[in-house]
Amino acid sequence: MSGSGALWGGRFSASPAPEAHALGSSIAFDRRLAPQDVAASAAHALALRDAGLLSADDADRLIAALGEVGAEITAGRFVFDPDDEDVHSAIERGVTDRLGDLGARLHAGRSRNDLAITDLRLWMRDAGERVNAACADLARAVVDRAREHAETVMPGMTHLRAAQPVTLGHHLCAHAWALARDRQRLWQWAARSSVSPLGAGALATSTLGLDAAATAERLGFAAAFANSLDAVSDRDVVQEFLAVAAIMGTHASRLAADLARWTDPALGWAELDEAFATGSSMMPHKRNPDTLELARAKAARIAGDLAALTAVLQGLPLGYARDLQEDKEPVFDAADTLELVLPALAGAVRTLRFDEERMRAACRDDGLYATDLAEELVRTGVPFREAHRRTGELVRRLGEEGRALGDLTDPEWEAYGLAGGAGLLDPDRSVRARGGPGGPAPVSVTAQIAELAELLEGEVGPD
Ligand code: ARG
Fold it and tell me: Is 170 one of the annotated active-site residues of the chain?
């Protein structure tokens, strides 16, 4: 009789201290891996069968029992035992409770070391697809609004100060390009991470002749591990998922930041739909952008998830160590957070009401055209530095006189070097003059949208 009911109890004469068990137990969070643990265990049962270690009938019975236990866990009907340290031990115990000796055959040639990371890879694969679809949906929402506003002019910013006119469509496409890259990063991660660790055992495979490649194929992975020690030690697969998630979270955050600014009533470039705005408990007039603020802030926790796992991994020698159990919560948190943020942001984008007139009115700021003037002087042969200086001096003098570029008389324009310069103080002319590829002109925005629409086709990615 062993002193502990744990899977590894044989070597022990006493049970773990309750506080050690409390620290070590991961069941509270890794029960989410039950469907993946069932799938991995079923594939393993077939590997045991193919190696002649289980009859076909026994393998079928094991797989059926695995399915029942998994379904009970998912439905919240499974009765956990205090000795169930994690989802892997709980499922194995549940199967053994049902099948007795047959259940006890399941763990041959595998370890929780290869099983845990197999489960997590399977979970991340599904989560990656869900996040990818949500990211695509947000990007499509952004592109749809860009299509409506390919010609809408607005001040473009640097240092959050009016810089040069752009089109709203151009600005929105800039966000969509970032999200499109995030999807590419997820595809690339998915391709690189399509490796099955199962069969690596604790660290050195097993003597039982299990076909890891067949297991990989059954689980839908592109390949089995190339090195069993790497298979159980590799967490860059998790780190990279978190890095991709952190970048995506950053992009969602920056989009939210722009929308929060545009919907500031003091600026009034857009209005949030009531369904995505919040009132104040004290100030009756408020319509606050809490959805956007949370989308902006949630990126911080995903960055924290990446930082946490990175800190766990650095300096950790190869071979499984319990430190690696800390890989799961950051991944769950990052995926859950993105699955909250991306749809909320997509809804806010779809229902936003842009005020084209306010944006156009903001383009009356003459400074927006100073660069166009300087570039026009360049066309007449003036060196750019000289054109920049001459224009800067003009803008300074007008400022001192309390006038604007629009107040210049024809003789003043001539003195500056551009007869007809007043015609340049026009946002539509300004953006249309930038019709090259990637520029803010409507023609370029339309071309960008066509490219983006192609990239954003499909829920998941290129096959
Ligand atoms: N719950 C553990 C984890 O997630 C399973 C692996 C336990 N392995 C071990 N050798 N103690 O990492």
Answer: no
